[in-house]
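Continuing from the previous page...

OK, I double-checked the sequence for Prohead serine protease domain-containing protein against my notes and this is the correct one:
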Amino acid sequence: MTMERRALVRPLAIRSAGDGPTIAGYAAVFGSAADIGGQFREIIAPGAFQGTIAGDVRALIDHDSGRVIGRTTAGTLRLIEDDVGLAVEIDLPDTQDGRDLATLIARGDISGMSFGFIVTRQLWDETGDIPVRTIQAVDLREVSAVAFPAYDDTSLALRSLESARTAAGQARADHNRKRAEARIAERKAAAEQRFRKI
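Thanks. Re-ran it with the corrected sequence; updated structure tokens here:
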């Protein structure tokens, strides 16, 4: 399984709490079709994060694992799956990265969230002009405040499409092979019955 990243341009809010600033926003929104490199559309289904948000997830800046700004197990990152999508709250640390991020969000320089994930359950629909991938469950690895909220890992997502097509082709081939074997077995049984005059 390959880790993929998706980004969302949606307003981030910053508010002051007793211990310092907290940022809040959405890393993902349900039911909104996103274009993935012009190759397919992708929709995140409600419930996709339910099995994973209780795990050890980190909050980063620009997907940089050297710039951690929160963590679920530390209680500095809170994730909630609501009717809209994956809601995120991060208590920013009193570090250079935390202070800089608060300033950049307040100025509007950073305006998006993203998340890094591994798809664990998906459904492909290739009946239309453009294939549609519905992500039903993920293994969430991280959420990030990002400067360039764009679908930068489309090549990884495209590998998922190719894998799905390969698996579907293999399934069709297996089904056709089993049907052919069943027909051969039926013919052999019929021939043996005629031979034995049953």
